[in-house]
Design a protein that fits this description.
By secondary structure, the chain is α/β, with parallel strands linked by helices. It is built from seven helices and 15 strands.
């Protein structure tokens, strides 16, 4: 993926396009590639043209933003825009990054973009100095410092992230979490577990121990674990 994130605006209001296009143009990490004025145009465009980030209005005639998300098999990362905060709360059911309440102010826009880049791996060329990961918990995002991250466990459609202070139940898949953690500090040791290598206290053939908790090590992960702990 290129250093610049390719952006799509989907909104039925020309004024919203003007504001978002202006803000996108001010951020060197973003590039506006297309603008759509309804959900049907957006669905057609996305079938042939993948983008990294979609700014999507919720309240549009004929097809709402949420209806568009429902019909997309693999929607891009999305920041929802709306004039009505009650709709924004519902949007979290669709795994969006953030929502912007209209009128959209530039500092709030930049905060949402920072949240986007928090989700990329450390080896990403535009985001290689992260000290934490941002994950969605309930209806808001929580920043978890890498230094506090002990291990993670799959839990249905969620992931439990264990820290010394508490356990977070995050709306993210184990695969997504793995790809968004720095590979020099974290390792998948089982289909259901990711561990912080620096917090491993001991290990045997089938487990590692972190804070007294024994974590299983899958057969296919043992060789890489051994190599990483040499």
């Amino acid at each position: 993926m290129s250093a610049q994130r390719l952006c799509l605006i989907v909104d039925d209001e020309p004024a919203a396009h003007y504001v978002l296009a202006n803000y996108i143009g001010q951020n060197p990490k973003l590039k506006l590639v297309h603008q759509c004025f309804n959900g049907f145009e957006a669905a057609e465009y996305l079938r042939e043209n993948p983008v990294d980030l979609m700014f999507l209005d919720i309240d549009m005639p004929e097809m709402t933003g949420l209806e568009l998300l429902k019909q997309l098999d693999n929607p891009p990362k999305t920041i929802l825009t709306t004039a009505y905060s009650e709709f924004a709360l519902e949007s979290y059911d669709f795994g969006v990054i953030d929502y912007l309440l209209k009128p959209i102010y530039h500092p709030r826009f930049e905060k949402a973009i920072a949240r986007l880049f928090d989700m990329y791996p450390k080896n990403d060329p535009v985001s290689d100095n992260r000290s934490h990961i941002s994950v969605k918990v309930d209806s808001h995002f929580v920043d978890i410092a890498f230094d506090d991250f002990l291990y993670a466990q799959s839990y249905g459609n969620y992931v439990k992230i264990f820290t010394p202070q508490k356990t977070w139940l995050a709306t993210i898949t184990t695969n997504e979490l793995e790809h968004n953690l720095p590979s020099d500090r974290f390792l998948r040791v089982h289909k259901s577990y990711i561990v912080s290598l620096g917090n491993i206290e001991s290990r045997d053939r089938e487990t590692v121990t972190i804070r007294g908790e024994k974590i299983p090590v899958g057969i296919t992960y043992r060789r890489e674990l051994s190599e990483r702990l040499r």
